[in-house]
Design goal:
Order of helices and strands: HHHEEEHHEEEEEEEEEEEHEEHEEHEE
CATH topology of the largest domain: Thrombin, subunit H
Shape: flat
Distance between the termini: 52 Å
Strand content: 25-35%
Number of domains: 3
Strand order of the largest sheet: 1-2-3-6-5-4
Low-confidence stretches: 30-35, 74-92, 229-235
Mean pLDDT: 76
Helix content: 10-25%
Number of strands: 20
CATH architecture of the largest domain: Beta Barrel
Number of helices: 8
Radius of gyration: 34 Å
Oligomer: single chain
Length: 386
Amino acid sequence: MVILRRTVGTVCLFIVVSAAIMRLLMRSKPAALDLPEGPKPPPGETVSHRRPPVRARFLLLIVVGMICLSTVAAVVAVQRPPTAVMVDTPPGTAWTQETAAVVMPSVGIVSVGSVSSGTAFFYAKDRMLTAAHVVSVDPAVVTAAEAGRKPDVAVTLSGGQQFTAHVLTIDSSSDIAVLQAPQPEGIPVLPFDERLPQPGRPVMTVGGSFGDQVVVGDGIISGVLTASRFSSGSAQTVLLSTTSPTNPGMSGGPLVSADGSVLGVIVARPDTVNGRPAAQTSVAVPSALMTGWLGSVRAGSEVKHRHVGISGRFDVSAGPGIVVNAVAAGSTADKAGIRANDVITGINGQPVTTAADLAVAVAQGDAVTVTVVTGQAQPSTVTLNP
C-alpha cells in the first residue's frame, strides 16, 4: 500500500507540473534569431527562426515524462523489500515456497512391505516421527515392536534417498510412532514449536500424497480441539484442526508454521470430530503434547503420558476457566480433592484461556499448580503431580 500511494503521488505530481509547463509554452512567443550564416537579408529585413509547434513540444514533454515515470517505477521495484517468511502471512502467498524448500528434504514416504502407507520426518538426530497407524498396517510390525525387536520399514525421502528404518515405539493412544533411521548427510532436523498455536495461524501440511510423492498444502489452524477420554488413565487429549488439504498417505507428516518449525504431526482427516461432521479438516497431534514423552523415547525408557485425571470444558462465564466435567477415580486430581463442577481459573500462576491449557501444562511439566474455585468459596491452590 505504501508503494502504491507513492506511485500515485508521483503520477499526480507529474500531471500538475506538465500542465503548468504547457500553460507557459502556450503563452510564449516565437523568438527571432539572426541567421548565423548564408546570404545576408536585405537591409531592414530579418529572418525569424520559429520554435517547433506547440504540439511537437507537448509530445516531447510526454516522452520525457514517460521516461521519468519508468525510472521511478524501476527505483520502487528495486527498493521493494524481499518476500519474508512471516508467521502472519496469509495462506497462498510466497512464504509457502520458501518454507517448502526448507521442510521437504526432511520428509519421506514410509512403506511397510510393498505398501506405501504414510509419511515420516526427521525430528532429531537419526530419529523420525510418523503416525502409529502408518506402521500398524501390518500386524506383524506391531507384534515385533511390542516385543522390542525393532521391525523394519522402508523410507524414501522427497529427494530420492532410500534407506531402511527401524520401528522403536508405537504409541497407539496418541497415534504416534518413532523410527530409528540413518540420517543422510545434509538432511536437516525439523525443530519443534512447543507453544500451542492459536486459531487463524497460517500452516502447511507436508506428506506423501497417495504414497506417490511428497506434496504440500497451505491453510490455517481452524481450531484447537479437546476430547475427553479415560482409556489408559488419560483424561483428556488435544488435537489441532486445520483447513490445509490432506490426502491419503500424508498421515505422519509434519504440520509446520511459516518458519519451518513443527506444530504437530498429521494423524487423520476424520469424517467426524466429537461426533459431528468434520468437513474439509485435517487433524494433527500438537507438538506441545509430545515433547515430554519423546524425551522418554530418547532416553530409552517406557513411554508414559502425563495426566492428572481431569476432563473439562472452557467457559468464559465461569471465571473464565475450565469447568471440570469429570475426575478419574484414584487420579492425582481426585486425591487432591478436585471434583466435578469445580472451576480451574489459573495454571502455574497464569490465567486460563483455553480448555487445552491444562493438558499442555501437564504434558510439559513435572508438577502443575492450579487455582480452583468450588462453588462460592474462595479460590484455593492445588499442586498436581502427573
